[in-house]
Design a protein that fits this description.
- The chain has 141 residues and is mainly alpha-helical.
- It has one domain (2-138).
- Helix content is 88%, strand content 0%.
- The chain contains four helices and no strands.
- The protein has helices at residues 2-31, 34-70, 76-105, 112-138.
- The structure holds protoporphyrin IX containing FE.
Amino acid sequence: MPVLKTIHVLGAIFLLGGVSTHVLLRPMAARAADVAQHALYQFAWRVQLALVYTGSALVLITGLLMWIGRFKLFTGWLLLGFLLYVAAAGLDGAFLAPNLRRARGATGEGSAPVAAAAVTIQLVAWLLLVVVVFLMVAQPF
Ligand code: HEM
């Protein structure tokens, strides 16, 4: 259905747009001085709520509806795409989002090694989603 697919792709734009913003913001925020750092983490949290969570919900709901409606359960690219989406959501829920929530509340982010780990893990989550886009578009197996 074109409506579902349109919403799905919009959700993907929100989600990947938000995660790409985080990839750019986190290294800047980690190096910024106090007041600027606080403002950058506040903005990152807004991006998390408005783009990442919204996009993630849209993509999940419409994706599952299209899967049930039109494709077999054991469709390779869908299974792998879903798995990689779950992996990215797991990284976000277990580490990245709590890290942002703490950072935007506190003055100063806390320990530098944690901020450095967050930069790397953020990049991994982004790469997982890029692979999902490839799987969805190419539908290779
Ligand atoms: C939650 C798991 C997901 C499921 C179950 C799912 C399911 C689907 C299905 C069934 C289609 C095929 C629609 C069709 O060809 O008629 C599709 C297309 C697409 N999906 Fe997903 N999806 C998921 C997550 C994602 C994510 C995380 C992204 C990107 C961030 C994404 C991006 C796309 C794009 C761009 C298309 C359009 C591909 C094209 O028509 O060329 N999806 N998805």
